[in-house]
Amino acid sequence: MRIIVIGSGFGGLAAAIRLRQQGHDVTLLEKRDRPGGRAYVYEQDGFTFDGGPTVITAPWLINELFERSGRDPGRYVRMVPVEPFYRIYFEDGSTFNYSADREAMIGEVRRFNPDDVEGYLRFLEKTEKIFNTGFGLIDTPFLGIGSMLKVLPDLARLRADKSVYRYVASHVRNEKLRRVFSFHPLLVGGNPFQTTSIYTLILFLEKKWGVWFAMGGTGSIVSAMERLFSEIGGRMVLNAEVREIVMDEASGLACGVRLAGDETLEADAVVCNGDVSFAYMHLLPERYRRSWRDAKLNRLHYSMSLFVLYFGTRCRYNHIPHHSIMLGERYEGLLHDIFRRKHLSDDFSLYLHRPTATDPSLAPAGMDAFYVLSPVPHLGSGDDWHALARPYRDRIVRYLETRYMPDLSNQIVTERSIDPLHFRDTLNSHLGSAFSIAPLLTQSAWFRPHNRSEDVPNLYFVGAGTHPGAGLPGVLSSAKIAADLIGSA
User: Fold this and answer.
1) Which domain holds residue 322?
2) How many folded domains does the chain comprise?
3) What is the pTM of this model?
4) 102-111 residue pLDDT tens
């Protein structure tokens, strides 16, 4: 079959590779000047900045793409473990080193509250059970209500009705520990106070397979996948923005795409790695989609957006680890502001990424590359980021300088930033959401837009907005689902 894949994020690249491995004629279309989607790479002044995902878990999902073509993944990309996974900083100066080492973690828990060790161990056992059930569904399509009904007893048994925070709080009493073990949904766009407890499986996933980093940055994985796709006969077209999915009126099937320059490309099937809501609203006329009309899409809950500052420093901050989580004084209140009130608060919590802690080649000799990420409300808030971006950047730099990185404002030699407008205008994400549809229980599995369109039988979706959801394991698994569905069609 002739198959067009829209978008070259991890989901699009993985789907294109798998489909080419099945023998299909695959063309991958990318709006921007290089592949990657949210994993776009910025290079400036001798620094290399990964634009998006930096936490790599379940690396075998990447490796198997190469192994399926008889390639040694180690010849394409080198991944190394990061230890500790994260260092969590609290406002009172205390820190928690989060790792896979069971005894070290027990020691960390004991430092905060000895009485919580037993509860932590029970929690760890429960996350393994949740993982064994939940991860088994990660590459299973939920195309009919029957598939959802089959898993409801398991979801009820695992207390999927509880939020991640509530589930953690039922095992540990110390508030700081509750934050340490509940922040993970933020990595996939979810509010720990709303996201279903099924997402605690992330904690066991990290424990089982570790947290990894690709030397050269996450962009090196994109480059490796691009190279593989080309080697096995795939075709990628850059600077090719899709304006419309072309439909055959008689059959109700997708028959190709129309590009921004009005060129039409024919296809027997279309796989969309673009934001699901944007694609339905802007690429497919509403008369072809009874299941996902604009009104229904607008009623969904979307993930937060992000403000991200990429910066290089003339000195090295060797006390800063690879991954840092800096939790502000408020936790539930801040998340309530971001997700429910859609209000940009005066305070924030941050994720600070220092890849040069592991790979110094990403910056000039003796210098450091960073990005600092702050969750912010999506554009449903009405915030004017044209006016807000610079003062928000300045507040973050002052905060880091005051608490963690002395003289930072004078050490920055290069920088750039993105905000919710970038997610809306460049990445075509509805409302500038950074992770598409939020991972609520009522927006998971069968309740999410399906991997195969409910209305257009030869239109498929991969990426964060469809099943199983955001995060590299989820996005790569969505590609496997779509390719398997096409292969069995």
Assistant:
1) 304-425
2) 3
3) 0.96
4) 999 999 999 9
